[in-house]
Amino acid sequence: MTPNVTEIREIAKAAHQGGATGVTAINTISGLMGLNSKAEPWPGVGAEKKTTYGGMSGNAARPVALRGVSSIARTLPGYPIMATGGIDSADAAVQFFHCGAGVVQICSAIHNQEFTVVQDYITGLKCYLYMQTRPDLANWDFQSPPRGAVPSVGQIVGRGLPKFGEYEKERKKLKSEAALKSDILVVPSTEPAQPPVAKAPSVKDQVGRAVSRIGQYNDLDNKQQVVALVDSEMCINCGKCYMTCNDSGYQAIRFDPKTHIPTITDDCTGCTLCLSVCPIIDCITMVPRQIPYVPNRGVKIATH
């Protein structure tokens, strides 16, 4: 199924009505690779260095591919779909299964690495399915442990101080003093691993798990609002959240000129722009808004 159409599900419906036993989604995305400073395109054919539009694949195609697969799955429940487009890991493969694909196809990942990635995917999928049998791993995101573990003394000391300049020197000094006073032989307590409580699910059980969560804008509940929350301890004071909110959002982040610590104001609309540009995973999280957001249009709304 080509993604270079207004709505891929209409093409899939036609294939289904025509008797096709399934579809592959998606094909490559039409694009122009690039040009050099001499205005010569790549690839350039012949002495004239001419080119044409070609197919873009790989990781850049994944969001479009996920959209295509989920759209077809919502329109044709149970219809066989082979997913392709940016599947570079077991994690990405699971995303396509959740969107409704029953099988995945990889190509660019093999070009970028080699055929052993197939075994990596299989191992990753087995691990993911096994983790679903362990209650103590329920909050893990694939193989990434959840945040919220009891912090060490070194993590507590210096909390709130920025990570640059004189602040960083003070942070290191405090941590060094705390380390000299602490007992390095004390081993933090950890909960024992819990045994599996059920049989591991199959890949087939993952197919379509996310389809019910994907829909049109009107399906969303605008009353369930969220706002951004910045973890100042994880923040590296880069200012990306401030810049994107100031230039493309709602100017809802204040950036301290001395400490470079961002603060979220009540103007936050929960658009997640700041989260999308933050280079530190989980430094910014979206939490439920306590009071409804009332947009400031600059004029009073007449009441009758």
Provide a brief overview of the structure:
With 304 residues, the protein is an alpha/beta fold.
Task: Write a structural description.
The protein is α/β, with parallel strands linked by helices and 304 residues long. Among the domains are: 112 residues, TIM Barrel (Alpha-Beta Barrel), CATH 3.20.20.70; 68 residues, Alpha-Beta Plaits (2-Layer Sandwich), CATH 3.30.70. The protein has nine helices and nine strands. Strands 1-4-5 form a three-stranded parallel sheet. Strands 2-3 form a two-stranded antiparallel ribbon. A two-stranded antiparallel sheet has the order 6-9. The chain is globular and about 70 Å long. The chain starts with 7 loop residues before the first helix and ends in a 16-residue tail after the last strand. The mean pLDDT is 89.
